[in-house]
Design goal:
The chain is mostly helical. It has 19 helices and no strands.
Length: 449
């Protein structure tokens, strides 16, 4: 089958063309992100000189505009290819951060913030599409794991770097940080420009242009298995928001634990993601597990961590036991993240037909964006009733996601479920390898499932 071209069952560790440049660019851009995300409102307040209230309002409005822009970014990927759109987004982010120190008025700040928000919100869609263009088979899973590890390591390094800058220059260092971000994004774009993307299968070609232009998002909306996959990911994505949104509130209001535990939990999560994420994903990949099942296992580990929080919130042991239990729960939670993320990401990329991959992944990415937008209000409302209630809802959601993934397995394309084709599937497809030289027929197969 063409989707596995250049790969054989034992060659999954082979590097893809331009992989080093791609990963280095991702790591450098993550450093830039880490230089402003931890400070967010404060960062833009000091860079622009505007009040925190105005900065918060502009960020909310431009963030919502960024969500609305995601479908257009998906269409652009299908029309021009992920690499070109990726470079445009890097350029927009570099330009935006270079201009932030000069955006001292509200209209100027709103304009610059809008440009960067459009690029930031759509970047995940485009990056996932680019991985789909440069890699096939198990290499997609490996790149997913490497990307996540580099993003965690880069963001941690960026946070440390900006802390040093602020220690030396005070809040005036935020200006240098903005220019440092611009430089990081520009350098990342230059590195990614060296990546050779495979666009022979539909994207950018005549067949791909015809397919994407004639059906657009209607193809996605008719593809019930992929919509089911997106819905299942929404349930899991709620769990991804738990550590940053729910965990600090739960510690302070229900467990009455010191706020320093939040920092310890984030440190454990970041170190594990950066340090052993690739190793764990490689172990899962080499086990031959189907992507649906390994993603379901990640969701089950999430559920186990959430049930652990319920037990801890019920027993409320002493401070020492609470500390040990919380860190153990964070380890289980992080393992769930490390198992689910590479498999779930590769599953979505591989289930998307190539001529309309951008539109498919824009739809899939909305599951993360909607979960992130819903999480604060949902968690605070449930927490007001009982501190254990949000964890119970998350545990049920994670179990539902795992069940949905297992039920969807037989409805999704085989090349999406399997990182490498099973022996029987390879043998059956071998005589037809020439006629099915590209996965361009995937839209028919997927929508028919």
């Amino acid at each position: 089958m063409a989707v596995f071209m250049g790969k054989t069952a034992g060659s999954e560790e082979a590097k893809v063309a331009g992989e080093r440049s791609l990963l280095l660019g991702i790591g450098i851009s993550a450093v830039g992100i880490g230089m402003y995300i931890p400070f967010s409102l404060v960062f833009f307040h000091h860079v622009t000189g505007l009040s925190l209230t105005l900065v918060g309002l502009v960020m909310t409005v431009t963030g919502l505009a960024g969500l609305a822009f995601m479908p257009l970014a998906g269409s652009a990927v299908d029309r021009f290819g992920a690499k070109r759109v990726n470079l445009v987004l890097y350029g927009m982010r570099a330009l935006g951060f270079a201009l932030y120190p000069f955006a001292s008025s509200l209209p100027a700040f709103a304009a610059v913030a809008l440009v960067t928000a459009l690029a930031d919100r759509s970047f995940g869609v485009v990056q996932q599409s680019l991985i789909g263009e440069v890699a096939r088979g198990a290499a997609r899973d490996r790149l997913q794991a490497s990307t996540r590890a580099l993003q965690n390591a880069g963001m941690g390094a960026g946070a440390l770097l900006v802390s040093g800058v602020l220690a030396l220059w005070g809040t005036g260092g935020f200006t240098y940080t903005a220019w440092g971000n611009a430089l990081a994004f520009a350098l990342a774009g230059l590195l990614v420009s060296r990546v050779r993307a495979d666009r022979t299968a539909g994207v950018g070609g005549a067949a791909g242009t015809a397919a994407s232009g004639s059906v657009g998002y209607r193809t996605v909306l008719r593809d019930r298995p992929f919509l089911g996959l997106t819905a299942a990911n929404f349930l899991t994505a709620l769990g991804y928001s738990a550590l940053s949104v729910l965990f600090p509130l739960y510690l302070s209001t229900w467990l009455k634990a010191p706020a320093s535990l939040t920092g310890a939990a984030f440190t454990v999560n970041t170190v594990l993601c950066a340090g052993v994420g690739v190793l764990i994903a490689g172990r899962v990949r080499r086990s031959g597990a189907r992507r649906t099942r390994s993603a379901a296992l990640g969701a089950l580990l999430f559920a186990a961590a959430f049930v652990g929080q319920i037990a801890l919130g019920t027993l409320r042991p002493g401070r020492t036991v609470t500390l040990v239990a919380l860190l153990a729960i964070v380890v289980v939670y992080t393992l769930g993240e490390l198992v689910h993320s590479p498999s779930g990401g590769a599953l979505s990329v591989s289930a998307a037909p190539e001529p309309v991959r951008g539109r498919y992944l824009a739809t899939y990415q909305l599951s993360y964006s909607l979960a992130g937008a819903l999480a604060p209000s949902l968690f605070t409302a449930l927490l007001a009733v009982d501190g254990r209630l949000p964890w119970a809802v998350l545990a049920v959601a994670a179990l539902g996601a795992a069940l949905a993934l297992l039920r969807l397995e037989r409805h999704l394309p085989a090349e999406a479920v399997h990182a490498e084709p099973p022996v029987a599937l390879r043998a059956a497809s071998a005589p037809h390898a020439a006629p099915s030289a590209t996965p361009a027929a995937a839209p028919v197969d997927v929508t028919a499932a």
